[in-house]
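Input record, target 12 of the design panel.
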């Protein structure tokens, strides 16, 4: 009897001692990140059969276990990766939003200042200070474009560094998880859970989810497998697979993510790398940084190209036709006709070597340009043009594919003309960045203020004495400078522009209500017969446009000829140049320069606002998930204090059992003396 009581007391002492130790361990780790409180799991051993029935043999401690909920821990991981994604995205969007939306030092104020200087020249076309101020304002605008472009380039370079550092951190965490997997498998072979090691691994997985979204799969031996992307194994038992940050074969200036397996490197599409800091960096680059850079480049290209076209339709103070006001990258399309060249065309680094074909092209219609980059791919049968912004693809029709391999090229729906020197090898791809690097190469071509073409190149004149003078009420609006919409034509090269055209009015009863018509002499091509006259109508010949009003008399005439004035108050082309500011030229002729740029600013602002809201929401969800997890697993000092008293009393009571057993044993011994 005494021996069984001794055994029961000792078992109680051991159980209470383990309880005290476990409680002390909990208290010591109250501030340890990721620690799950532990408790002892105990049971009564199998009783001993006696004549009086089954006698209890005390208590045994089966295990020390974590107070842990797998689903609550998983919820924290999911909330963590989303919170990290939104916070990272917000921090970068805030940076780019501050760049593009600056209300005082931004591009829009510089555009406004430049066109104000153009209006000043229109007001005082022969005034040297106004002309010099226009050149100075133009240089300021170029500088503003280039400063903003440089800041965005710096953002891209910094982004590449962040991507590389994030990938290195992911690989480091994966290696630590793999190492803990090995230790946990060994420790768990004892039959008992290594609680602290499990907590450390859970914390590593949570930290890993700050960087990239992972999917975990627990195994029966205690290890876990971690997967990223669409099922690529990052940690499989004790085996670790690494990610790499490598130059994209299509765009070496941008870092992409590769998956390294058995000496083979597989490039992961950006949209497969989701969640966490890395997913946010890739999405930010694709959705925001590319948009901002291409929008800035398109605004600059649209402005300088259309401004040049209009400027060349005017006449300067030296009596010469206008020349290019801005300098920028062009390619020669035909004799005397230069067109904007495509910024960058790159063959994919994985193309067949040696290359069988190269891709060239130019910008054919600026109004159709989008802010996207493209990829032309050939599979051996079909050509596919992919929009890299939205993922849409267009397979060229047979006639379009045939045109692609001719010098004339294939005209895309997005304003580009593309031409291959030969049929490429199957699988070859070409990246097309229509706008890349344009701003870095733009400048001001005109340095002499007298060369600003503010006047119109042609002028309408009526007969003067001693010739017969006009006697009707004909009202002449001077010919407008020719405004070209196609980049493949040049009004300054029109050989008929300065050919005099004379309109002579004659009665024509068939014309209602004016009763007048006119003959045209000098037009190319020649106009045969009478042309009905309608008051307020606009007529166009030899590359100029003119409005006539009033009622001419029989024999009245007007001649459109070269403007021979070199120092007049003629401001027609300056007015046309100023009008470009409010002309919808970009985005399919739906937006002015500033409106097109403003749409990008609004998009980035909306993304920033959305990211701000989502960041706050995800932080709240993360806090709630951590609170739910902590309500189960975190150390509660009040509860642990109560456990200390409980185990202390159990220890004292078990000691008392041993003491009583000792006295009973002594009494039995004394009976035998």
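The sequence produced for target 12 reads:
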């Amino acid at each position: 009897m005494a021996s069984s009581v001794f055994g029961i007391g000792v078992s109680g002492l051991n159980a209470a001692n383990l309880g005290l130790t476990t409680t002390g361990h909990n208290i010591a780790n109250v501030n340890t990140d990721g620690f799950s409180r532990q408790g002892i799991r105990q049971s009564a051993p199998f009783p001993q059969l006696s004549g009086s029935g089954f006698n209890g043999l005390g208590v045994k401690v089966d295990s020390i276990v974590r107070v842990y909920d797998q689903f609550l821990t998983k919820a924290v991981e999911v909330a963590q990766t989303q919170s990290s994604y939104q916070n990272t995205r917000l921090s970068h969007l805030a940076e780019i939003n501050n760049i593009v939306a600056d209300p005082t030092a931004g591009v829009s104020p510089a555009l406004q200042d430049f066109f104000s200087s153009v209006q000043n020249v229109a007001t005082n076309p022969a005034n040297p200070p106004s002309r010099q101020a226009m050149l100075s304002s133009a240089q300021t605008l170029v500088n503003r474009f280039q400063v903003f472009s440089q800041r965005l380039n710096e953002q891209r370079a910094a982004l590449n560094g962040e991507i590389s550092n994030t990938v290195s951190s992911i690989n480091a965490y994966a290696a630590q998880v793999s190492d803990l997997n090995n230790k946990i498998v060994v420790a768990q072979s004892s039959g008992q859970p290594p609680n602290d090691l499990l907590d450390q691994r859970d914390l590593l997985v949570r930290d890993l989810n700050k960087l990239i979204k992972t999917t975990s799969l627990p195994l029966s031996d205690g290890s876990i497998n971690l997967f990223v992307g669409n099922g690529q194994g990052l940690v499989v038992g004790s085996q670790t697979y690494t990610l790499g940050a490598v130059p994209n074969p299509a765009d070496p200036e941008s870092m992409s993510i590769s998956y390294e397996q058995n000496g083979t490197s597989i490039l992961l599409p950006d949209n497969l790398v989701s969640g966490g800091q890395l997913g946010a960096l890739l999405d930010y680059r694709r959705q925001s940084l590319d948009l901002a850079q291409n929008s800035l480049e398109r605004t600059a290209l649209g402005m300088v190209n259309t401004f040049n076209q209009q400027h060349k339709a005017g006449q300067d103070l030296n009596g010469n036709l206008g020349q290019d006001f801005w300098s920028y990258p062009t390619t020669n399309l035909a004799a005397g006709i230069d067109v904007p060249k495509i910024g960058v065309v790159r063959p994919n680094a994985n193309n067949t070597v040696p290359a069988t074909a190269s891709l060239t092209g130019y910008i054919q219609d600026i109004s159709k340009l989008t802010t996207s980059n493209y990829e032309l791919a050939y599979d051996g049968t079909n050509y596919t043009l992919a929009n890299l912004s939205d993922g849409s693809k267009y397979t060229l029709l047979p006639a379009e594919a045939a045109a692609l391999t001719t010098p004339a090229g294939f005209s895309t729906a997005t304003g580009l003309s593309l031409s291959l020197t030969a049929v490429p090898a199957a699988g070859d791809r070409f990246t097309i960045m229509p706008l890349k690097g344009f701003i870095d190469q733009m400048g001001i071509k005109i340095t002499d203020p007298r060369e600003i073409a503010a006047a119109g190149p042609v002028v309408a004149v009526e007969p003067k004495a001693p010739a017969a003078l006009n006697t009707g009420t004909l009202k002449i609006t001077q010919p407008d400078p020719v405004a070209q919409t196609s980049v493949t034509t040049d009004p300054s090269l029109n050989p008929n522009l300065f050919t005099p055209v004379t309109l002579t009015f004659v009665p024509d009863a068939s014309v209602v209500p004016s009763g007048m018509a006119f003959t045209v002499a000098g037009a190319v091509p020649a106009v045969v017969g009478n042309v009905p006259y309608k008051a307020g109508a606009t007529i166009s010949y030899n590359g100029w446009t003119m409005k006539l009003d009033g009622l001419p008399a029989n024999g009245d005439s007007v001649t459109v000829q070269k403007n021979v004035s070199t120092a007049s108050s003629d401001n027609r082309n300056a007015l046309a140049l100023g009008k470009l500011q409010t002309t919808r030229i970009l985005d399919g002729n739906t937006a002015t320069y500033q409106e097109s740029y403003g749409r990008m600013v609004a998009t980035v602002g909306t993304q920033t606002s959305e990211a701000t809201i989502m960041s706050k929401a995800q932080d709240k969800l993360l806090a709630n998930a951590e609170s739910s997890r902590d309500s189960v697993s975190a150390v509660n000092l009040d509860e642990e204090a109560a456990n200390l008293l409980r185990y202390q009393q159990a220890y004292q009571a078990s000691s008392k059992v041993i003491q009583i057993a000792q006295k009973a044993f002594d009494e039995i011994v004394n009976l035998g003396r």
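The chain has a mean pLDDT of 90.
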